[in-house]
Design goal:
Elements lengths: L2 H7 L11 E6 L3 E7 L19 H20 L7 E13 L8 E12 L2 E10 L2 E14 L2
Antiparallel strand pairs: 1-2, 2-4, 3-6, 4-5, 5-6
Length: about 140
């Protein structure tokens, strides 16, 4: 799935769109996507100028965006002005290694369950096959007025 298709399944836009490509997905099960982390990322200006490191919260956000794509594909829907897919929880977040400029951040997300509109996922981020972050994420689709 290229960036044009991603834009149909996520409401996020620059500078907050954190998924560049979907490598593979299985509806109702899992997704593998990635984010190319470049020195031009706006967050590197202040985090940290002398040693650029991608903030952990943005790694979690990238995983949540991949989860959102998977969930919309699973529901057979796309975001619209009447609904939002909120990030509602993180359990067991662990950061194993810094992500720096030049890394390709691979996002692996698996649906654990969808109960009463709350989706729960197992999420891992990897660079060069090495685990850099992991967590269980929760999201919920909600109507907005």
């Amino acid at each position: 799935m290229d960036i044009h298709e991603i834009l149909k399944h996520l409401p996020h836009r620059y500078p907050f769109l954190l998924v560049d490509r979907v490598v593979d997905f299985e509806v109702g099960k899992s997704i593998h996507a990635y984010k190319n982390v470049t020195i031009n990322e706006p967050f590197f200006t202040g985090h940290f100028p002398h040693h650029p490191v991608m903030p952990g919260v943005l790694i979690m956000e990238a995983l949540a965006q991949a989860a959102g794509i998977l969930s919309f594909k699973t529901m057979g829907a796309v975001p619209d002005e009447n609904s939002v897919f909120y990030f509602v929880g993180i359990d067991g977040a662990r950061f194993k290694k810094p992500v720096t400029a030049g890394d390709q951040l691979h996002l692996h997300v698996e649906i654990l369950r969808n109960m009463r509109g709350i989706w729960k996922y197992k999420a891992e981020a990897r660079v060069d096959g090495e685990l850099v972050a992991e967590a269980e994420l929760m999201c919920a689709k909600r109507d907005v007025a």
